[in-house]
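Q: Two folds, back to back.
A: First:
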Amino acid sequence: MAARRMLGATVLRRAGLIFVPLVMIAASLVYLLYRAQSSAYWSIFQAEQREIVQLAQQRAISDLSAIISDVGYLARQESLQQMLNLARPVDRSRLAVDYLAFATHKTVYDQVRFIDTDGREVVRVDFNNGRPRVVPDAELQEKVDHPYIHEMLRLQAGQLYASALDLNVERGMVEQPPKPTIRMGAPVFDAEGRKRGIVVVNYQNGFSQWSIFNCRFKAQD
C-alpha cells in the first residue's frame, strides 16, 4: 500500500515537471500572440487615423481652392462692373439676380455680398436654409465696425482675406442654430482702377460636425 502511494506521488511529481512547464509555455505563447495582435490592431488604428487626417487635409485644400476661385470670379463679375461703371438701378437688380443664381448653384455659401467702401451692404443674398433669397434694402446692414471688413477694405488688387472660424451673428444675436463660418473676400475696382468695395462670401459647408468637439468660437456678424 505504501509502495503504491510512493509510486503515485512519483508519477504526480513527474507529471508536474512535464505539464507545468508546458502550461507556462502555452500561457507565454498566448500572451505573446495577444501582444502581437494588439500591436497589429494599434498599427491599423494609427494608419486609419493618418488616412482620415490626410483626407481631411485634402478636402480642406480642395475647398479652399474652390473658394478662392469663386471669390476671384465674383470680384471680376461683369454685372458688378456694370453696376459700378454705369450706376443704373437695373444693374444693381441684375447683380442681385446673379448672386441668387450663384448661391443656388454653389449651395455652400450662406451669404454672398457686395459691400461698399463705407462698410455697407449694397447687394446681399442669403442661402436661407436651401431657399436662397435676395435681402431687401431695408434689411441690409452696416458692417463698418467689424474687424474682417477693415482687413478686407485694406486689400490691394489680387489679394484675398479669410477670416477666422467663428459663429455668425445677425443684428447682435448669434444665429440659431449656430453657424460656424469662415468669410473670404476680395477688393473690387471699377474701370478707372478705383477701389469701390469688396465681395464677401460666408462659407459654411463642412462645419456641421463642429458641435462634437469641445470648441468655442468667437461670434461676429
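A: Second:
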Amino acid sequence: MSKSLELTEKRTNLIGEARNIFNANPVMTKEQDEQYNRIMVDVDALADQIKTEKRSEHQTKLEAELKQSANDQRTAPHRPAYTSVSEKRAFVSWAAKRSGMGSGSECEPYFNAYDQKLSIRLSQDYYDPIEQRAGLLVSGATTGATLVPTLIPKMIDDWLKYFCELRNYVRVERTLTGDPFNMPTSDWTGDNLSNGTTTPEQGTITEVDPVINKVPFSAYKFARLVSISKELVQDNILGDGLLGLIAKGLAQVISRGQEYDFFQGLGSASNEPTGLVVAAKNAGSPVEVVNTLSFDNIMDGIYNVDRIYQKDVAIFCSNNTLNACRKIKDSNGRPLWLDFITPYKDDQQEVISGHKVIVSNSMPDFLAGSGTGLGSVFMVFCPPQEYMIRDVLEFEFEVNPYENMKQQMINFYGTLRTDANYIGAPRSIKYLTC
C-alpha cells in the first residue's frame, strides 16, 4: 500500500473517532471538547501530508514513464540499410510515429516516399530521442530532392508571422493552385440601401441593385537561394540546427520582402501585391493633410471610417510615427497621450483609444512641417480582416545536394507564391498624409 493510502486510511479513522465523540456527547465536557479538538487538528494535518505525498508519488511515476519512454526510443526497430519491404515499412512507421505524424495507414505517404528512392539519408547515429527529430518530410517534388525534419514546416509558418507581423491580424487564405481568381465584393452600407422605406400590404417591393465588384488575385513568387558547403552540412548533421537556421533565414528574407509589398506594393501592373497604402489611396482622398501631428488628427481618421466598420478599425503606422504620437505634449510639457496609449507588452500591441495599433517599418514615417499633401501616407485606418493575403499552398523549403555537385555545394531554396489586396468597401478605409 502506498504512503498516501495509509495516511488517508488513518485520517478516515480519526474522522470516525471524532464523530463518535460528538454523537455520544451532545453536551461535551471540557476534557471531551479538548479531545475532539486534538483529533480535528490531526485530521487537518494529515490532509496536508496526503496532498504532499500524492504529489511526490505522481512525480515519481512521471519520471519512471519518461525514463521508460527514452529507453523505448533509443533504438529503431529497423535500419534503412535493410532492403526487405516489411523492414522498410516498419522503419518508416517508427520514424513517423516518433515525430508525431501517426502510425499505420497515416504512414503510407512516408513509406511511399522511401520506396520511390527519394533518399532518407539517416546515418547509424542519427537518433535523438530527447529532441524527437527523426521524422522526415519530402522537401520537394523534383527528382533528387532530399527529406527534411518534420518540425521545420511548422517552424517556418511561425517565422513568417514573426517577421511579417501583419499576417497575425489580416485575413490569410491558402489555395491549392496559383490560378488567378476574383474575390467578389459589394458595399451594402450605402445610403440607397440604409435609407429605404417600409413596404405597405400588397405593395410593390422596391428592387435593390447593389454594385458587385471584383478584386483580382494572382500569385507572385517570392524566392531566395542559399548555397552551403557540403562539409558544413556534414559537420552539423544531428538534429535540425543547421537546417532550421537556413530555413529561418530564408523565411525572414522572404517575409520581410512580402511585408513591404503588403504596405507599399503597386499591384498587378508592377507584378506585385497591392499594398495597404495604395489601396487606401484608391479608395478616396485623405481625411487630412497634416502639418503638425495632434490628437485631433488621429480621432478624425478613426471617426471618418463608416460607423458600421468603426468598431473593428485598427491603426497602421510606422514605429517612428507612433513614437511621434507618444511625444505630443501639452503647454506644460506633459505627454498629452499618456492616458490614451496603452504601452506595448509581450502579449499585447499598443492601443490608442481602444483601437489596436499595428506597427510596421514598411509604412512611411510622418514628416513634421510638410503639410503639402504631396508627402507620404503615414497612417491608415481600417479593419485588418478586410485586407486579404492569398498564399499558394505553403512555404516550400527545398534541399538539392546534386545541383552544384562539382563545387561540393548544397543548395537550399525558399519559395512562397503570394498576392494581397484590400477587399473591403471604400468607406471602410481612411488615411492621413503629410
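Q: And?
A: Confidence is low (pLDDT under 50) at residues 73-83, 98-104, 113-150.
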